[in-house]
Amino acid sequence: MGAMALLTFCVLGLIPIRRIGAALRREITPEDFRYGESARVSGYVSIPNRAMMNLLELPVLFYVICLMSYVTGSVGSVMLYAAWLYVALRILHTAIYLTWNNVLHRLIAFAASNVVLIAMWVLFFVGLGSV
After folding, report:
1. How far apart are CA 59 and CA 90, in angstroms?
2. Is there a contact between 83 and 116 (Cβ–Cβ < 8 Å)?
3. Are 70 and 53 in contact (CB under 8 A)?
4. What separation in angstroms does the CA of 31 have from each of 36, 40, 45, 127?
5. Closest-CA residue to 117 (of 93, 95, 85, 72)
6. Which positions ≥6 away from 38 have C-beta within 8 Å?
7. What is the total count of domains within the chain?
8. How far apart are CA 50 and CA 129, in angstroms?
9. Which domain holds residue 91?
10. What is the pTM of this model?
């Protein structure tokens, strides 16, 4: 959970870096953000914000399943490995998004992370049935 939080905070820090840099180069103005991001905002500037939104959507379910597993004392090695695999796939997804941004590559990493997340939930509830 800490690694996911760190990834989220790193992307959060990248947003003002890209925005301030673009403003200093006079590529954008504050008005470009009055109602979100205007069409004038380049992908280089807007993508970190979109990546941040991605890190606040489905990962919420990751945090919940991790906490539920911890509270119920059901964190076994399989769940732990699945959690680290999820984090690795989310790091990969974010790295793709922030660099070469190939949609197919990004989709594969995103879909794989979602499969792992679903598996974590299934593992949790199957494990509860055996207790």
Report:
1. 9
2. no
3. no
4. 10, 10, 14, 52
5. 85
6. 31, 32
7. 1
8. 38
9. 2-129
10. 0.93
In single-letter form, the type of residue at position 103 comes to V
d(CA 9, CA 55): 10
Q: What six digits make up the tokens of 71?
A: 């509270």
Q: Contacts from 15-19 at CB under 8 Å and sequence distance 24+?
A: 15/48, 15/49, 15/52, 18/44, 18/45, 18/48, 19/45
Please check whether residue 28 is in contact with residue 43, taking contact to mean a CB–CB distance below 8 angstroms: no
**Cα gap 111→94, rounded to integer Å:** 13
The CATH number given to whatever domain includes residue 15 is: 1.20.120.550
Rounded CA separation 63/61 (Å): 5
Per-residue pLDDT of the chain (131 residues; tens, 9 = 90+): 999 999 999 999 999 999 999 999 999 999 999 888 889 999 999 999 999 999 999 999 999 999 999 999 999 999 999 999 999 999 999 999 999 999 999 999 999 999 999 999 999 999 876 65
